Amino acid sequence: MSRSRWSSVLLAGLGLVAVVAGASRPLGDVLPRAIQKHGGWTPDALAAAARETDIPEGGTMQGYGVKFFPPGSSMAGQNERAFPAVYQVQDGKFALVYPKTFASTAPVLPFPASSPFAAR
Fold first, then answer.
1. Nearest in space to 52 (alpha carbons), one of 82, 22, 26, 73
2. Could you tell me what percent of the chain has a pLDDT over 70?
3. Which terminus of the chain is more solvent-facing, meaning fewer CB atoms within 10 Å of its CB: N or C?
4. Does the predicted model carry a pTM greater than 0.90?
5. At what angle do helices 43-51 and 24-38 cross, to 10 degrees?
6. How far is the CA of 28 from the CAs of 21, 37, 50, 106, in angstroms?
7. pLDDT confidence tier of residue 19, bands split at 50, 70 and 90
8. HSE-CB of 71 using CA atoms within 13 angstroms
């Protein structure tokens, strides 16, 4: 395989692994499965391994899980266990306020008058 082709395969594979969840758990989960079960770390092998990933909610550093909607679904390829995380600056520090299951504190609403985002 040429160096150019190898580089594109490597980048595609690493990109897919990063998209899976962006943390070390998916790298340690997807990459070995791609190599052992699907014969390597080609984009097709990584995609097949990623589709088999089943990490429960709370199982990644970011708090969400990883399970992809199957082919044929209108959401195929999307992580069905992903969720947005909403942070708010409170007392000069970032605080996770949503989702409630992972929140470190309750949101301050409405925003205080000193906030540039306060209703005027």
1. 26
2. 78
3. C
4. no
5. 110
6. 11, 14, 11, 34
7. low
8. 5
